[in-house]
Batch of 3 targets.
Target 1
Amino acid sequence: MFDDRPAFGVRVHALGGVTVAEIAGELDIFAVGRIVARLDSLVQVRCPDLILDLRPVTFLDCAGLSLMCRLRNRVLERDGRLRLVIADPRFLRLLRMVRLDDAFEVLEDLTPAIAGAAGASGPAAGGGGDALG
């Protein structure tokens, strides 16, 4: 039987002043069309501090790259900060190939990015977060 459930998802949680959006599955044109509004809403505040955790992403195409650039531009317009957590060497190589490796602050792990916020605010604010997808 054909499984037509989306092969992607987004979980968002806040830790101190940092918003973490964990994207899972395939980040392709179909997924981007479904999650772009949700991610745009995360950067509507002044000085947003957004982390895209891409470790659970299994596939990334030009639509996913375009989404990341869109978010970067919106964050910079609002004097904010965008970081990407990427562990897959294929995605790092892709960023280099399209010459976007210098456009993003890339981390291998989420822990250092949120360590300061966790120490300042205690347990994660906002509970278990919400999910889409």
Target 2
Amino acid sequence: MELLAPVAAFLSLPLFLAGFAWYAVRARSRGVSQSLLAPIEEIWDPVAHKTNIEIQIEAERSPETPSPGDPPGLKWRL
């Protein structure tokens, strides 16, 4: 019984890391732009909330929108 706790702790680390890897793959494939630790970051750094909002707005912005100085008929494509 004494060995059960260290073995459980040792085996839980790969599961924990696999969960983060799964989340990273899922976030990249679906285009999720928010950090997993954003709520904790907002507690310790209140300015991070504004930064996360700006990042989300920038991610939602369409690349087809022309800049204010672009000629009217010119379309940019990436």
Target 3
Amino acid sequence: MNDSTITLPWLVVRQDDNGNRYRVGRYATRAEAQKIADSLDSRGHKQLYWVERIAQNGDSADN
């Protein structure tokens, strides 16, 4: 585990039209990550954006 996993445990993830997933960014709080995801989602493109919490082992965990 590294320091960024502890201090930035929330991911914003984007999925494009072809099902490819990309990490958009990491954030300290769920509220901050959700604000970014909502902002990106409101642009009206066909991509999906959502928030995930990184588990203590560094893997993303669904929330």
